[in-house]
Design a protein that fits this description.
Length: about 60
């Protein structure tokens, strides 16, 4: 039920409880977001910043892509 995650740090996550005979074991490969990948989504959608506000933050070096 607990699956090891393929990463630099060893840890386990809960796997699918349904197992089928003859099917390969499930593997987990985390894909962490890149630095700044979700800046616009978080700042605009969640926090209500305008596109101009976000552009200013990029321009001033407060956040980066």
């Amino acid at each position: 039920m607990l699956l090891p995650v393929e990463s630099e740090n060893e840890f386990k996550v809960a796997g699918n409880p349904v197992k089928f005979t003859g099917e390969p074991e499930e593997t987990v490969r985390p894909k962490p977001p890149h630095l700044g990948e979700h800046n616009e989504e978080i700042l605009c959608d969640w926090l209500g910043f305008s596109a101009a506000d976000v552009a200013a933050l990029y321009r001033e070096g407060v956040i980066s892509h």
